[in-house]
Write a structure and sequence with these properties.
Elements (H helix, E strand, L loop, with lengths): L5 E4 L4 H13 L6 E4 L8 H6 L8 E4 L2 E4 L1 H11 L10 H11 L2 H13 L6 H22 L12 H12 L1 H7 L9 H12 L8 H7 L1 H4 L46
Parallel strand pairs: 1-2
Antiparallel strand pairs: 1-3, 3-4
Helix pairs in contact: 1-3, 1-7, 4-7, 5-6, 6-9
Length: 263
């Protein structure tokens, strides 16, 4: 039986980063081996067998079997390494934390739908949907802890869930000129800034996200190729640091491989 724990993941994926954040908070980053998957290439048959033919990541292989869904894995790791618990221990507080985490799905969907939108006429509707999600989070935080920074007194499980998404949505800042600071939602802005600045949550940076997610901004997800392109923006080579910043305009002609530093 395999004795080590392995997470198969995409390094820039927010659903994987939340696991890394939790392990960093616990001082257990080396207790789990992260195996990088290149989504621009056909999936390894052995990995597909582990995942039961699903291409969704991350998945985690344990001595007992395979776990899927990042929120499931997140809670599993928090309980597996009980030192420095990240989730709340009080039953009521844990329930409140779970209510906030339950809002993540709609938030994520709105953000990705906005960045992937290719229809200028739908741009305002996508922006309104994103604003509505931030207003919803702001209302929840004002209800539960109006004067605080985090949901409770520290960075917890809800913060580990949302922090990677706040980072990914830097692609909205860049490609859609969407600035949360313009919304006037002080409580969620304060929460977001605290999540973004936490030392344990610095696995990625804005430049990396903007460059790798260019194809998403042009409507192609998960390593898919756009017309007349031969290399995905998610490719490992050339390294993202060696590429120029992509053009910010996303409703005109897509950039070529050469213009993106991929040729």
């Amino acid at each position: 039986m395999q004795s080590e724990i392995v997470v198969y993941h995409i390094p820039v994926c927010p659903f994987s980063q939340r696991l890394e954040i939790l392990l960093e908070l616990k001082g257990k980053r080396d207790a789990v081996r992260f195996s990088v998957v290149d989504i621009t290439r056909p999936r390894d048959p052995a990995l597909l067998e582990l995942s039961r033919r699903s291409t969704a990541l991350p998945i985690m292989q344990t001595p007992h079997g395979v776990l899927k869904e990042s929120l499931v894995i997140l809670r599993f790791l928090d309980e597996l390494f009980p030192e420095k618990p990240v989730a709340r221990s009080d039953p009521y507080e844990r329930a409140v934390e779970s209510m906030l985490i339950a809002m993540e799905g709609d938030f994520t969907t709105a953000g990705y739908r906005f960045v992937m939108n290719q229809d200028r006429d739908r741009r305002a509707a996508c922006r309104d949907a994103m604003v509505a999600q931030y207003r919803r989070l702001n209302d929840f935080l004002e209800w539960q802890n109006p004067a605080g920074t985090y949901l409770f007194d520290r960075f917890g499980l809800a913060e580990a869930v949302f922090a990677p998404l706040f980072m990914r949505f830097w692609f909205l800042d860049y490609y859609e000129n969407f600035d949360v600071a313009d919304l006037g939602l002080e409580r969620v802005r304060r929460w977001r800034e605290a999540c973004l600045s936490l030392p344990a949550a610095q696995q990625v940076c804005k430049e990396e996200i903007v460059k790798l997610y260019y194809d998403y901004a042009m409507g192609a997800r998960n390593g898919a190729l756009l017309p007349d392109r031969r290399v995905s923006s998610f490719a490992f080579e050339p390294h993202w640091q060696d590429r120029p910043w992509p053009p910010r305009a996303k409703y005109g002609r897509p950039a070529t491989d050469s213009e993106l530093g991929l040729a």
